[in-house]
Design goal:
484 residues, alpha/beta, Rossmann fold, Dihydrodipicolinate Reductase, domain 2, nine-stranded mixed β-sheet, six-stranded parallel β-sheet, 36% helix, 21% strand, globular, binds NADP nicotinamide-adenine-dinucleotide phosphate, carbohydrate metabolism, EC 1.1.1.49, Glucose-6-phosphate 1-dehydrogenase, NAD(P)-bd_dom_sf, glucose metabolism
Length: 484
């Protein structure tokens, strides 16, 4: 299959840190279809050779196992080309169109790895230059808007040039092997499905914790915050994967229809819920992995009086038959105690206790997303102390480590998603109505914070966020997984 992958923002951070390494891995694994071109596009005047040299030098910063040998890079580099395009200049699109037409590839992927402010002009000009043929697919990176209105406006512009089946909105969490395993666990096995409901599940916790701060992206983050950067997209997509009904088949729209229903069923925010069931925090200086680190307001590019949240914890419910009354707790933040993303399904305790159970030892299923990918089933068993008739049970766990089982050579998120775009598979991409529904749901929280003069609660870097987060979950009689 011949393809041209046009990488707008081809010299940018996303291109060299994530996309090029992912494309190289696909090339190394032999899964990148032969006969393809990868065309970097930016305003610099680079020759193909200069672009190849730039990408080669950037690979020095990629982790060792994912770095090409000199011989591998030479073969990969033959796919790389560069075209100078200023996205604000119509003439440059006409030149791009001429270059693409010369080859007339079966599939043309336009990957917009540029600032979202350029999306509108890029889509309009691609259409004006006739670059929106049915062979074209367009890939959009987050953030797709700042709120519901801006998200809608981007979606409307893109839809004027491309049909929905040509639009691939990336949420790279959906490309993670661990998230695919969540779908496999739920819909490839019958074991858990009868238990996956309000009668047996007490609560569900979704945590995406980062130990890093804002790194070099202080200015971007300061205008974004954790709710827009992580909750509106990644955390809500995980919630959908956990809570959706089994789709009628594995086709993209069947899956996306079910995710949309979950988003539509999220409990609307009341004034009370906004004040008691959402906690926003901001990291102060502290110690992470044994090293002292500055507070958020001291980071480069951040306003010293910034009210931007680097932590969010919230409680919600899903108003449908399966989940009515079951609390879902979502939590994400920067500079937390560990890099750890996981989902905990806490089952209800046995209805009639004939054994002594240790406090807090709920039956639970833990879905580890990162850094480990696997499943832990936490159960109670009769342990060594079985001499007395009324001996307490001991917690034990079944531990499935998918990295060990399937090897570390598994396909990474961007590699998987880029191959899906080239092959036209939309399952792991977000439809516009899903995205708009997610914005609609987070917007009252944004409005509430904009009117709230108290600002975020400080927490010491290297901890699990403000104490109000633990207090919020404790009001229901539960605790976050690391504290139970
Ligand atoms: P970046 O490092 O600033 O790169 C921007 C790229 O766009 C450069 O190649 C730049 O090259 C090009 N560009 C800017 N203005 C242009 C114009 N008028 N015409 C043509 N090319 C232009 O940004 P980034 O970090 O790669 O981020 C790109 C997008 O991905 C952003 O929306 C970001 O939020 C999103 N994103 C980034 C990451 C990440 O890890 N970096 C992760 C998720 C999402 P020239 O200036 O030479 O033209």
């Amino acid at each position: 299959m011949s393809f041209d992958l046009v990488l707008f923002g081809g010299t940018g951070d996303l291109a060299w840190r994530k996309l090029m390494p992912a494309l190289f891995q696909a090339f190394r694994h032999g899964t990148l279809p032969e006969g393809g071109r990868i065309i970097g596009v930016a305003r610099d005047a680079l020759t193909d050779q200069q672009y190849r040299a730039l990408i080669r030098s950037r690979f020095d910063e990629v982790e060792l196992a994912k770095r090409p040998s000199a011989e591998e890079f030479d073969r990969f580099a033959a796919l790389l080309h560069f075209i100078r395009v200023d996205l604000s200049k119509p003439a440059d699109y006409r030149h791009l169109a001429e270059v693409l037409r010369e080859r007339n590839a079966e599939t043309v992927v336009m990957y917009l790895a540029t600032a979202p402010s350029l999306f509108t002009v890029a889509c309009e000009q691609l259409a004006a230059a006739g670059l929106n043929t049915p062979a074209t697919r367009i890939v959009l990176e987050k953030p797709l808007g700042h709120d519901l209105a801006s998200n809608r406006s981007i979606n409307e512009t893109v839809r004027r040039a491309f049909s929905e089946r040509q639009i691939f909105r990336i949420d790279h969490y959906l490309g993670k092997p661990s998230v695919q395993n969540l779908f496999a666990l739920r819909f490839g096995n019958s074991l858990f499905e009868p238990l996956w409901r309000r009668e047996t599940i007490a609560n569900i916790q979704i945590t995406i914790a980062e130990d890093l701060g804002v790194e070099k992206r202080g200015a971007f983050y300061d205008s974004t915050g954790a709710l827009r950067d992580m909750v509106q997209n990644h955390a809500l997509q995980l919630l959908c994967a956990v809570a959706m009904e089994p789709p009628i088949n594995a086709h993209a729209d069947a899956i996306r229809d079910e995710k949309l229903k979950v988003l539509r069923s999220l409990k609307p925010w009341s004034a009370l819920a906004l004040s008691q069931e959402v906690v926003r925090g901001q990291y102060a200086e502290g110690v992470v992995n044994g090293e002292p680190v500055p507070g958020y307001r001291q980071e480069a590019g951040v306003d010293p009086d910034s009210p931007t949240e680097t932590f969010v914890a919230l409680r919600t419910e899903i108003a449908n038959w399966r989940w009515a009354g079951v609390p879902f707790y979502l939590r994400t933040g920067k500079r937390l105690a560990a890099r750890d993303a996981h989902i905990v399904i806490n089952f209800r305790p046995a209805p009639h206790a004939i054994f002594k159970s240790p406090l807090g030892a709920a039956n639970s299923l833990v879905i580890n997303l990162q850094p480990r990918d696997g499943l832990e089933l936490h159960l109670l068993a009769q342990g060594a102390d079985n001499r007395r008739q009324q001996a307490a049970l001991s917690p034990v766990q079944l531990d499935l480590d998918f990295d060990k089982r399937f090897g570390s050579e598994r396909v990474g998120a961007y590699e998987r998603l880029l191959l899906d775009v080239i092959h036209g598979r939309l399952n792991l991409f977000v439809r516009s109505d899903e995205q708009e529904e997610a914005w609609r749901w987070v917007e009252p929280v944004l409005d509430h914070w904009a009117a709230d003069t108290e600002g975020p609660r400080p927490y010491a870097a290297g901890t699990w966020g403000p104490s109000a987060s633990s207090a919020m979950i404790a009001r229901d009689g539960y605790c976050w997984s690391e504290a139970c």
